[in-house]
Amino acid sequence: MADGIWGWTIYDHPADYPDNVVVRGWRVENGLAVAFEDVVIVDTIDEARAAIPAGLRPIPRVASDDPVIVESWI
């Protein structure tokens, strides 16, 4: 991976994939989080967690997060 902050967020049935759980990668670029174009589409939260690269740590959601955000990993 390149320098900088990289992470992955698990979404539970977001508006663009209302029938699935989605994992989106992102990186911080010029102070803004930029999402990867590719996503991982699965059926369960456990499958989404299994898609997260090894060695990362979960960050629990906070009250101000979109309700479909389950957690993020960095």
Question: What does the model show?
Answer:
The protein is mostly beta strands and 74 residues long. It has one domain (6-73). The protein has 1 helix and 5 strands; from the N terminus they run βββαββ. A hairpin with an 8-residue loop joins strand 1 (6-12) and strand 2. The chain is globular, with a radius of gyration of 12 Å. The two termini are 12 Å apart.
Number of beta strands:
5
Low-pLDDT windows of residues? none
Based on CA atoms alone, the radius of gyration comes out at: 12 Å
Helix content: under 10%
Ends apart, CA distance between termini? 12 Å
Order of H and E elements: EEEHEE
Mean pLDDT: 92
> Main sheet?
5 strands, antiparallel
Shape: globular
- Class computed from helices, strands and strand pairing: mainly beta
- List the strand order in the largest sheet: 3-2-1-5-4
- When the domains are counted, the total is 1
As a percent range, the share of strand residues is: over 45%
Number of helices: 1
Short key terms for the protein model shown above:
74 residues, mainly beta, 47% strand
